[in-house]
Amino acid sequence: MISPTPFDYARPFDIMIGMWTGHSIVYDNKGEYLYTGPSILTIDWKEPGKVMHYRQEDLGSLDQLIQEHEHGKALEDLFVLREFELQVDGKSCQSITGAVKVHGVESSPGTYLFHLNFPTGDYYNNQYFLNPNQRRIIGPFVPRDEEGKTNGFQFVVSQTFERISYDVPKDAF
């Protein structure tokens, strides 16, 4: 069992620090199940209260699922390694490194809103901490075609994460 948290709940984003295991479930825009993929997530402070390091790696044979799936190209960027640093400024953050542009905000303690801008589209998600060690993330993915046009959201990504450690080992990946 994980011991009581060492986090400062008054400091935005502090509750996210640690090592997490989880899975993502993808549905189409009609709510039909498409597939599931497990992942490991680590988040730690590079500079406490100011710069966070985020790293999520999906596990399993998701490459095969993506290639076989008719929507594979639009989802391709979602199911790989995502790694970036976030500059935290009060209750908001923005990516300062990585291929994904990210903007996030704490709307209330334990509730966060994020916009992740991938080369193939945008993922808007809401993150809710059910307790210090469980979080749910859900939101639509809006793909863009080669001309940058969108046609509404095409997928909903629902993620569930469980904290497995407050510490992030230096050799986590």
Summarize the structure.
With 173 residues, the protein is mainly beta. The protein has helices at residues 62-68, 72-75; strands at residues 18-28, 33-47, 51-58, 82-89, 92-95, 101-108, 111-118, 121-131, 134-143, 155-165. Strands 1-2-3-4-5-6-7-8-9-10 form a ten-stranded antiparallel β-barrel.
Instruction: Order the strands across the largest sheet as they lie in space.
Output: 1-2-3-4-5-6-7-8-9-10
The computed structural class is mainly beta
User: How far apart lie the N and C ends?
Assistant: 23 Å
The backbone outline, from C-alpha atoms, is globular
User: Hey, roughly how much beta strand do the residues contain?
Assistant: over 45%
Q: How many β-strand stretches?
A: 10
In which range does the helix fraction lie? under 10%
Integer average pLDDT: 85
Please tally the helical runs, counting DSSP H or I stretches of 4 or more residues: 2
The helix/strand series, from N terminus to C terminus, equals: EEEHHEEEEEEE
The biggest sheet, with number of strands, parallel, antiparallel or mixed sense and barrel status, is: 10 strands, antiparallel, barrel
Q: Which stretches are low in confidence, meaning pLDDT under 50 for 5 or more residues running?
A: none
Quaternary form: single chain
Rg calculated over all Cα atoms: 16 Å
